[in-house]
Structures are given as C-alpha cells and as structure tokens.
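Example record used in the benchmark description.
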Amino acid sequence: MFGLFGKKPKFKLQEKMEVELEFSIPDGLKSYFSKVMEVSKKRATFATPKEGNRYVSINPNDIIKIVVLIEDTIFEVNLKVTASMDKEFEALVSKNVNRFDTILKDRKKNEEVKLEVEVPLDFRAITTSHVQRATTNIITKEYIDMVTNLPIPEGTDLKLYFKIPETPVIETEGKATENEPLKESKKSKTKITFPEKVTESDVFKDIEKYVLHFQRREERRKELEESQQEGELPPTNKK
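Model output (structure tokens):
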C-alpha cells in the first residue's frame, strides 16, 4: 500500500480498476462502485452501476464525482458525462484532482493495519441458516473485535458478511475465540479469528479498501452538511 521508495502516488485511471462513483441526490449523496472499462488521455468509459436489478440513470452533462484509492491515498475527481449507453457511460475526466491521506500513510512498512471502525456485519454459524447482526470495533488481517446481542460459544465456526455501507458485501469465514460481557449493556464483545485460508487471501485488502472509502465518504457528507448549514447551495449532478 505504499508508494515506491516513499514517492507520492499519482492519480491515474487504469482499465478494470474499481472506483467509487458519487452522485448528488435531493437529500444528500449516493455512492456506487463501478469499474473502468477504457481509458484515453482525457476521457474514460465506466460500467454503469446498478440499483438492485436496474441500471442507475446517467445522462449527458451529468457531473459525477469519482473516488479512487491508490496505495495510501484517496483521490477525488469530477467527471462530466459525454455519452450514456445501456451498460456503460463515457465521461471527460477533470484535471483538478483532490487528494486525501488515509490512515495508511503514516504506517510503517511491516506494521499491522488496525481498522478501528464501526460497520455492520452479519454472521451465522456454518451449521445453521439463522443470520444475526453485529457491529465491528476493530478489524485486522488476523481477527475482528465485534459487539453482538448474544454471546457466541467459543469455537463456533462462522460465516461472516461485511456490510460496509454502500459497498459490495464481502463474504468470508471465521471462528469465535473469545467472549466478554459488556458492563454498560447486555451485549457481548466477541473476538473472531480468521483461518489461514482467509489471512492468505485478498479478503482483508478488500475490507481495508472499502473501509477507507467509507470513512472518507462520511467525511464528505459531514462537509456537505456543514456547507449547507452555512447557506451554500447544495451540489448538483447537472452543469
């Protein structure tokens, strides 16, 4: 996740790159993840995201914000739609690029990434179909600390479904290894460890990517709320 020899990463779209597309809607902002289909010097073609089974409505002249995580930096750039087809759209890519450092920037090369974040996580015992909801406190490559309504028996093998807001669901597995009752409530703090097949996969990289997008998205929404409270005009998809 670090730039080569300490160099700052640069914004550059590439084919098949996963990106976040942010749209302005009447009551705020809405994000979808998509992929870059083609890239030229000033333009790029993107897959049109879906809302359920329907493609999101995108029209020429719409202004869409693109958000990309490259190494330890998040880049935000505006797109101006020039053409929209059924499953993809073409857009001009602005030269004005905003960059934001993530929590990864000051991490030492071999230091463990510890994501201290509250995001929804559904889980079930592998032997059952009953799904329950938890909230994460800490996520690392090796384990999760999460809060559950009921304690999970130690040694229980679990299916885990990370449901980070406005991101694809990440499905993986883990084992309950520790339980501790929370004094301030009837809930339990539970530690889930990942098996070797998970720690050696790209699951944590995906979780890390979507969490960093989520954290920056929350910052943007807060910035929007503050600007609207100060009497600035709300954003628009039109130009």
